[in-house]
Every structure is written in structure tokens, then in C-alpha cells.
Design brief:
The chain is mainly α. It contains 12 helices and 5 strands.
Length: 241
């Protein structure tokens, strides 16, 4: 349930910043639908999904983003998408798993459920930021030459009321499952205040970008060499297994 809330909040946040996000929709699965399913596995899945679920519109003939599309994407848009992911601490976007699609020559981003800054705003989940930032250095749009001030300005200009509207749009069932100890209104108030506070702190984003410049990330080749070294050391000590 937490993943649904994070995805919903992050996607709506991105929409306010004009990030091309495939916006989620709420899908209500009725118990009668599960009862009518013929296939046992499908029936079991539907039974577990009764209630409000998260979905996206079907995009026919969409292609997964890969590096061959990179030259066709506007540089400003690339930087905007990257800065938004740094702001969210969204670690789930790499060359291998870009979580972006191309449809009619337009780029769409998706899957924001791993946005740790949003997760922390909701449940105060702790994280080690320097470890997270190493993942962001693998972002397909990572660049050291970024001017974040336009993005920071856009963040600050989001009206607080729009943030409240996003949080108010979270289904009550999701809030209840997230925080059984707090009432609905109190939970929404806390989440709203934390999100409003985050959008005001552009200095955090600037600090992350500075730290990214000096963080060393192991390449695939270096990882392979390290693995070979460990294997050889093991074989020398214990022999081949």
C-alpha cells in the first residue's frame, strides 16, 4: 500500500512541475468481478485486489526508452527529469531499467514508487543519503553541468494548496492501511506539512548535486574485476568447489 501512495503523490507532484509522467488512475475492483473469474490464479489475484487499486492508461505501441532515443530528447527536459528524481531520491531509473517509454516520439516517465524522499515524508523511513546518491549517478540523464535554480524556483512556486489537494486525493483506504494508529485527517495533515517543507528546501537539492560530483561509482567492469579477484582468493584458500 505504501508503494501506491508514494507513486500517487510523486506522480501528481511531477505533473505540477510539468514532468512528462504517465499519470496514475484509481481503479476500483469489485468483489463480484473476482467471483466471476474462471482461472484460479486470476481469481486469487482479483480477490487480493478488491478495493481501490493503482493503474495507468494503456499506451498502445509504446516502446521502452533506450540510449538510441537519447539524441531525440530535449536537453532541458533531460535535466528536468533528472533534477526531479534527485529531489525525490528516486533510485529506480538507470540505463538498464529506465522506467520511461516513447509514444508518438514523446517521452513518458513512470514508476515512482521507489522515491525515498516521499516515502520518508509519509512514514519517516530512514535512509543513508550518500548510498542513495550513488544509485542516482547511474541515472540515464545524469550530468555534472546542471543549473538547478530554475527547477528550485519552480518547486517553491507550487502553491501549498496544490500539495494539500494531492494529499487529500489519496484514497482513505490507503491512509488507513498506512497508519492504523492515527486518524485520517491527522495523517493527511502530517504528510502535507512534510511535503510542503521539502519543496522549500532547495539547498538540499544543491548539496546533493555537489555530493554527486565527488561520489565514486563502481563501473560494471570494475565490479566484474572485483568479483574475479574475490573468486580467485577463495579458490586459493579453499580450492575449486
Amino acid at each position: 500500500m505504501l508503494a501506491n501512495v508514494v507513486e500517487w503523490v510523486a506522480s501528481k507532484f511531477g505533473e505540477l512541475l510539468q514532468i512528462p509522467i504517465l499519470q496514475p488512475v484509481l481503479v476500483n475492483i469489485d468483489a463480484t468481478i473476482a467471483e466471476q473469474a474462471g482461472d484460479p490464479e486470476t481469481k486469487e489475484l482479483l480477490e487480493k485486489s478488491v478495493g481501490i487499486n493503482l493503474g495507468t492508461a494503456y499506451v498502445p505501441d509504446a516502446a521502452s526508452y533506450n540510449t538510441r532515443y537519447a539524441q531525440r530528447i530535449d536537453g532541458f527536459l533531460k535535466h528536468r527529469i533528472f533534477l526531479f528524481d534527485v529531489f525525490l531520491l528516486n533510485v529506480d531509473r538507470t540505463d538498464i531499467n529506465a522506467n520511461m517509454i516513447i509514444h508518438n516520439d514523446k517521452l513518458w516517465c513512470l514508476d515512482y514508487s521507489s522515491s525515498l524522499a516521499i516515502r520518508s515524508s509519509i512514514i519517516r523511513e530512514p535512509y543513508r543519503e550518500h548510498v542513495i546518491l550513488k544509485c542516482l549517478k547511474l541515472h540515464p540523464f545524469y550530468s555534472q553541468n546542471l543549473d538547478p535554480y530554475g527547477f528550485i524556483k519552480s518547486l517553491k512556486e507550487i502553491p501549498d494548496e496544490r500539495i494539500r489537494e494531492i494529499v487529500d486525493s489519496i484514497p482513505p483506504e490507503w491512509i488507513e492501511k498506512l497508519n492504523g494508529t492515527k486518524n485520517d485527517l491527522e495523517s493527511r495533515r502530517i504528510i502535507t506539512e512534510r511535503l510542503i517543507d521539502k519543496k522549500q528546501h532547495g539547498i538540499a537539492l544543491r548539496n546533493r548535486l555537489d555530493l554527486l560530483k565527488v561520489l565514486k561509482v563502481e563501473t560494471a567492469e570494475e565490479s566484474s574485476l572485483r568479483g574475479d579477484s574475490k573468486r580467485k582468493a577463495f579458490e586459493q584458500k579453499w580450492g575449486r568447489q
